[in-house]
Amino acid sequence: MKLLQILVKSLISSVIIVDVITLPAFAHNGMDHEHHEHQHTAKPQTRLAVRKDVTDLSSAEKKDLVHAIKTLKTTIPAGSQLSIYDQFIAIHLGATRLIHNHHGHSHSSVKELAHENAAFLPWHRQYIRRFEQALQTVNPKVSLPYWDSTNPKALDVIFKDDFLSPNGRGVTINIPGRGSFTGGPVQSGPFSSANGWVLKPELNFDPVTEQSLGTSLVRFLQAPPANDYPLPQRDIDRVQALDDYSLYRAALEGFISVDEQGNITRGGFTHNYIHGLVGGVQIDLTTNPVSFKGLGTMSNIPSSPYDPVFWLHHANVDRLWAEWQANGHEGIDFYPADGQPYGHNLDDLMWPWDGGMSTPEATALADLLSLLPDVDAQDLVRPRDVLDYTKLGYIYDRHQMKEVPEPTSTFALCSLTALAAISLRKRKQQQIKYRQL
Ligand SMILES: [Cu+2]
Predict the structure, then answer these.
(1) Distance from the alpha carbon of residue 434 to the mean position of ligand 1, in angstroms
(2) How far is the CA of 112 from the centre of ligand 1 (A)?
(3) For site-directed labelling of 228, which of 5, 191, 421, 426 has its Cα 20 to 30 A away?
């Protein structure tokens, strides 16, 4: 009996505390806000940044995000030629054209570290997390929302003057058999050049011609052939159903599509497709294989983070990978340990967090090396280090909901009821026994 009382007492006290922190609905029954507020602030050190579906953002959250992004674009760290935002562009550019300096790799071997191979997912996971942390130096409440491209409502939320600016204007393209479509420089909203969103010409270029693409954010939203929206959920489900990482990465990045029978089709899907849906792509049927020419900022991959929607799109790619991992593909068994080019294997260092092991090749426009931020030589990141995304300090709203509520609250409540029932029955038994005595 004594034990039961102690147990119940401790549980009751723990439930009340839990009640206050994690189950706000309960907390307000007779509890004053003051007390509640104090409890909440007690947990900042473990608080994960929650990444929400962009269509669930409040207008205040949208404003905060835009403000944080634009502050990074105008903040130039001491000793740097570039703003923090432009430094992130230089890093993305650099990762698409590296020269490996370390033994076993000849100097001429320019490699793509962040795309077209295994490190596409871990490299971007680290990259956008660093960007999110940079945003949080401006406003700690800000986190990266994700753009779920199966969500039909998202376009009308994202491409608006009160958020990430609308489609571009002023250029009409005629597509044989499809009609004419407009796009061009973005001319209104927070991300027009008139409102201060000016791209560095030496960091915004066509990767094939190495010609600068100028200083304006350019969009050809939903110009054919990348005009179908939203992406069918069944297409995403088919990608998420793949078990082999290499196949999964290629399908999520969007170079292939795998049907139910396992047949592979090459083309532009999922991640790559959405880059095209925003920036606009022109198909060049005269080349073999057929080639795509990017018309706008998002469809020229190296400079594509200059379109702020890049971060929402890649948060979604990262969310899908996190869901795939949580769905029976957790840990190092679901990432290649070897057999990939350097930078893509489980324990390879990923540039620029590689202690200076690789150097980006200069372009016709800029000596990238002189433009890059200093990365601490001890700041070393391998794919292995980012497989468990919760260790990076963020979580997705959907995962939060799916996650079993903290054992303390539910368990406490359930066991409390169970214990109460037990004690009740015991007491009854005792009473009966007592009566029989
Ligand atoms: Cu990228």
Answers:
(1) 75
(2) 10
(3) 191
Q: What is the C-alpha separation between 269 and 251, in angstroms, rounded? A: 7
User: Residue 233 Cα, ligand 1 centroid: separation in angstroms?
Assistant: 23
User: Is 269:251 a contact under the CB 8 Å cutoff?
Assistant: yes
Report the Cα 151 to chain-centroid distance in Å. 16
Measure 114 CA to ligand 1 centroid, in angstroms.
6
Reported as a single tens digit per residue, the pLDDT across 113-149 is 999 999 999 999 999 999 999 999 999 999 999 999 9
Q: What is the mean pLDDT of residues 240-255?
A: 97
SS3 176: coil
In the predicted model, what is the mean pLDDT of residues 157-178? 95
Distance 299 CA to ligand 1 centre (A): 11
Instruction: Output the CA 96–ligand 1 centroid distance in Å.
Output: 8
Domains of the chain: 2-231+269-402 (1.10.1280.10)
Q: Which residues contact 350 (CB under 8 A, 6 or more apart)?
A: 113, 119, 122, 123, 126, 343, 381, 382, 383
User: Angle at Cα 50 formed by Cα 46 and Cα 54, nearest 5°?
Assistant: 170
The per-residue pLDDT of the chain, averaged, comes to 84
Q: How far apart, in whole angstroms, are the C-alpha atoms of residue 242 and residue 222?
A: 28
Secondary structure (DSSP) of 384-431: HHHSSGGGGTEEEHHHHHHSPPPHHHHHHHHHHHHHHHHHHHHHHHHH
Q: Which of 147-156, 382-391, 426-435 has the lowest mean pLDDT?
A: 426-435
Handedness of CA 17, 23, 29, 32 (dihedral sign): positive
How does pLDDT run across 348-387, given as a tens digit for each residue? 999 999 988 887 777 777 778 788 888 899 999 999 999 9
Whole-model pTM: value is 0.81
Task: State residue 125's pLDDT score.
Answer: 98
